[in-house]
Specification:
The protein is mostly helical and about 280 residues long. The protein has a domain at about 15-195: I/LWEQ domain (Up-down Bundle). The protein is about 75% helix and about 0% strand. It contains seven helices and no strands. Helix 1 packs antiparallel against helix 2 (about 50-90), helix 2 packs antiparallel against helix 4 and helix 5 runs antiparallel to helix 6 (about 165-200). The two termini are about 50 Å apart. Keywords: Coiled coil, Cytoplasm. One of its GO terms (biological process) is clathrin coat assembly. It is found in: Cytoplasm. This is HIP1R protein.
């Protein structure tokens, strides 16, 4: 019972409906993200000017391009998913196909959720950056997360798709496009951050020699503190990834209806008996 996939507790029709629902929710999240970015663009033009306006426009334009690429990816993924179901279900219903391939279905749902969640997080991070209440690094991390979730969605679709499928080829092309646009967000964010920081912190005119020396020493202290903190965060990240792999690996040990391997059951304690101790002559 412990090794049974959790999806088997869900009724066939419920599992099929979950796929449709998650893909629809993902599409809705992307559309909402595009609308929010357009609103942020209008607000930025009204409330900022000069270098800040230039930086905000560049970042938001790159985010818009990324959202459009994700929208095309989700649409193509939906088309490929329908193609997979139609070609593989035979006489079975769509719900029966999803139930029979429950682990694949769970992977598809998880990947779709990850894409929608990444898009939402990216927009929220962009909003905070434009309002000067967030960090540029958040945008960079969100872009990497979107690229990772896109790869997850392509991998989930590729498992069941025919190699000669046009929709699969288009999905892989969309995935590459998403990666390029995500890299564009990272590049525009880094260049914008450098512009803003250089404008705000690199104006040393009017400082006396003593003031400059004091600023130099304080900056050296900050560098040492940040290096120490960076090392600690890297160790923490390594431990988090280790735990993530442990949990993810534990979810993949159960046998799928497609015939994936199942770990051998542990022998009962009663069967293994301690060998008798040899008697002395």
């Amino acid at each position: 019972q412990e090794l049974r996939p959790k999806s088997l507790d869900i009724k066939q029709e419920e599992l099929g409906d979950m796929v449709e629902k998650e893909m629809a929710c993902t599409s809705e999240a992307i559309e909402d993200a595009v609308r929010r970015i357009e609103e942020m663009m209008s607000q930025a033009r009204n409330e900022s000017s000069g270098v800040k306006l230039e930086v905000n426009e560049r970042i938001l334009n790159s985010c818009t391009d990324l959202m459009k690429a994700i929208r095309l990816l989700v649409t193509t993924s939906t088309n490929l998913q329908k193609e997979i179901v139609e070609s593989g279900r035979g006489a079975a219903t769509t719900q029966e196909f999803y139930a029979k391939n429950s682990r694949w279905t769970e992977g598809l749902i998880s990947a779709s959720k990850a894409v929608g969640w990444g898009a939402t997080q990216l927009v929220e991070a962009a909003d905070r950056v434009v309002l000067h209440t967030g960090k540029y690094e958040e945008l960079i991390v969100c872009s990497h997360e979107i690229a990772a979730s896109t790869a997850q969605l392509v991998a989930a679709s590729k498992v069941k798709a025919e190699k000669s499928s046009r929709n699969l080829a288009k999905l892989q092309e969309c995935s590459r496009n998403v990666n390029e646009k995500a890299a564009g967000v990272v590049a525009s964010t880094k260049s914008g951050q450098e512009q803003i920081e250089e404008k705000d912190t690199m104006d040393f005119s009017g400082m006396s020699l003593i003031k400059l020396k004091k600023e130099e020493m304080e900056t050296q202290v900050k560098v040492l503190e940040l290096e120490k903190r960076l090392e600690g965060e890297r160790v923490r990240l390594g431990e988090l990834r280790k735990q993530h792999y442990v949990l993810a690996g534990g979810c993949d040990t159960a046998e799928d209806n497609d015939g994936d391997p199942r770990p051998a059951p542990a022998p009962r304690r009663g069967i293994l008996k301690k060998p008798p101790i040899a008697q002395k002559p």
